[in-house]
Design a protein that fits this description.
elongated, homodimer, 38% helix, alpha/beta, 9 helices, 2 domains, 6-stranded mixed beta sheet
Chain lengths: 247, 247
Amino acid sequence: MSEAPSITAAILVIGDEILSGRTKDKNIGTIADHLFGLGIDLREVRVVPDVAAAIIAALNALRHSYTYVFTTGGIGPTHDDITADCVAEAFGVELREDPAAIALLLERIKPEDLNAARRRMARIPVGASLIENSVSKAPGFMLGNVIVMAGVPSIMTAMLQAVTPRLQTGALLHTVNINVDDLPEGAYATALGAVAARHAAVSIGSYPSLVDGRFRNQIVLRCRDQAALDAAATDVGAMMAQLAAKH
Amino acid sequence: MSEAPSITAAILVIGDEILSGRTKDKNIGTIADHLFGLGIDLREVRVVPDVAAAIIAALNALRHSYTYVFTTGGIGPTHDDITADCVAEAFGVELREDPAAIALLLERIKPEDLNAARRRMARIPVGASLIENSVSKAPGFMLGNVIVMAGVPSIMTAMLQAVTPRLQTGALLHTVNINVDDLPEGAYATALGAVAARHAAVSIGSYPSLVDGRFRNQIVLRCRDQAALDAAATDVGAMMAQLAAKH
């Protein structure tokens, strides 16, 4: 089956606070949902600490492997906010105070309050374009294929919306979910594996969850080709009916 | 300051369902909290899809970089559960049906229901030790420095508890949290940076959150040396008092 080249992405979460457990990340799920809706395949996530060498190494690994890299965190005014520095260093470009970013900051901050720390938030790698922050003004930016966003979830979400029109999107992945409440995974796994082998173009996963001590399972089928998806879903349905009749 | 060598860890989350947004991960936060309480430094997290090459590459990168690697997901009975295969391949050992694992499965599954798919859950890399699963019996395992756990949160948590006595633990990281409700980050960032520079042994972070459209910040100080931590916290307190007096 010939297919358009897929648009791929990675997320790089930057922050000691996630790794220490202090903050429970919510951005990964939000970005994953958003990219899924754009037909962009999220292929990898990494979480790294506020350590320049770790951030730069992850940035360089990811930006050369995927269409886009979305970073969250580390663009505030304090000494531990070093994401812009790291992106500039990873790309080998200068980090400079950007007059347009200063203008955005001044929409929220009085001129007499625009101190050195706040000016840090206007330091943008040369060649980057700003990403609007409708919540608190201090902008994110996009440099090459790297999209740099805040860590505060509501601000991250605003930036994600703002940058979306600039992204190349892919064909939507169609999905069929089949809930299986009455059969354990072990009872259908072999048959499902055989169906999956017959429909190699369709991604088929089985996801158990425990509800009140009982497993409930969901079989999820995904494919960009609706006809192929329908054929696989029909096959899974027939297989489940056959198994249910036996039980 | 001389210190005991730190005990480090990474988490490898395995699963298409996290990357597609279908499932919102809860295990990272649980493991992060648990490791923090053991004095083990979580240094990196990666999320990869159910693709053998991606899993094996991440396993090999992480297991050579940190004291421990905790994996979640991909150890059920279905065709998309390939974590055990990947761990065996990464270590270059055989994957064999383990009689002890079969015995554990038989505590929950009737002998006549122990089909080929369920037997998949008893395939354990040679040299690994089993990790008890008090919730649904199918065990995890530990091979070298890699700890392989289920993805279902309640089962993952049971396995994390079960494996804990086998882990080398580190000195506890002491923490001081200072809530700052009345000053924006930009008002104290420069002064905080100066304090941080004077207390290089103490990790100092500033974390904003937006509550009803207003920023609330928390300054978090962390150090294994209580005296060094107290000195830095005193310094931050004095700095904040001075700033508050000015405002």
